[in-house]
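Researcher: Next sequence.
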Amino acid sequence: MKGSVLICCFLSLLHLQATAEEEDDFISVLRDRSHIDETLRLATEEKAGDYAGALQRLRKIYHTSIRPMEQAYKYNELRQHEISDGEITSKPMVLFLGPWSVGKSSMINYLLGMNDSPYQLYTGAEPTTSEFTVIMHGEKIRSVEGIVMAADSSRSFSPLEKFGQNFLEKLVGIEMPHKLLERVTFVDTPGIIENRKQQERGYPFNDVCQWFIDRADLIFVVFDPTKLDVGLELEMLFRQLKGRESQIRIILNKADNLVTQDLMRVYGALFWSLAPLINVTEPPRVYVSSFWPYDYAADTSRELFKREEISLLEDLNQVIENRMENKIAFIRQHGIRVRIHGLLVDRYVQTFKEKMSFFSDPELVFKEIVDDPDKFYIFKSILAKTNVSKFDLPNRDAYRDFFGVNPITNFKPLQAECSYMGGCLLDKIERAITTDLPALLSSINSGKQPGLSSCETTGCGEKPKNRYRKN
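Model: Next structure:
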């Protein structure tokens, strides 16, 4: 009896030892992540004061020089893109797109070290992500419902309310204290399933994707070797990416599942599939690696995959380092569009007044103008009298819809949009485009801290105090 007990104890010890060795082997195959912190420079301290001062100055320029014309000529109703303070002050956004189960969520878990944590993104071989998941910085780890995110005006997600309650139920936020998330925000999207129609999702999936695409600083389109076919939904997605080619990075994930010869064939097949969808002379950068926390498979190009991963991290770090310059460039580009819109509306107003007579029917006169603007040199006069490029002019048909909602009589000529104290709208927006924003960009590049005294009197976007009014 005693002998059998000793044998059982001995076998139990052997089992425990074998289990411990298996756990050690499992731990040993986890990949070293030290190069992530090193490449992204997460250990270095940021000059938060300089960045905050530049943001304050940028907000002031936008609110005092660009937004007045934007509101006077209802630019938001033409482009459906209103810039909020949350969007100006938001961190760079990295968007993950691609077919289902290609490793988008695993890649985010790997970059943030969230594996085996309570808030790691769920992954699997089947379609697992059904929500738009926003991973952002917070003082503690917690999840935020989409309805709460949209209701918070301090965030940049309040415009998402226009997509309806069904979408907000498919929007979730995760906050966590992470050094990388202090500088960037990740957005994980539902995988594209070609046999699913947009109506089956219960919300306008492509419109929501377009909203995030318009605001993303970097767009990772992820594939794996088994999902290279391009269907209607993926083709629609690449159509939405037109004009954003500089932000697109193609990722061929799970590359260590193939031997080198097969990997070369898959790489060529990927380019063959994407060539008709990306109509640019220079193709986007393609990264080939395996982005998850476990070690590369044996007998694969480990050094190549490691270099590709570091190259992608350097690309991401470049976007983070240039985030202030990108925001200034974005606001300046927005200001140029608002200025062009103001000049065009002004030209429509002037032409309408010139063609009107005592016996004219206002509706017929303006219908003739809006139906054939080239007959009255509406767009050509803008090109002749200003330095606007013909490639920056908006679509003529868009103004037919715009004036269908906003009668021409609602607008004043630009020369009438002036005041003794506030100046002229056109002068202010031109000064912002040609002087103020380039000067702010120069101060960032030279390392000088932007002056904050101008923000102390106006609150950088708040209504200025009336110095002549008695308290």
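Model: The beta strands are 93-97, 132-137, 142-145, 171-176, 185-188, 218-223, 248-252, 285-288, 418-419, 423-424. The radius of gyration is 28 Å.
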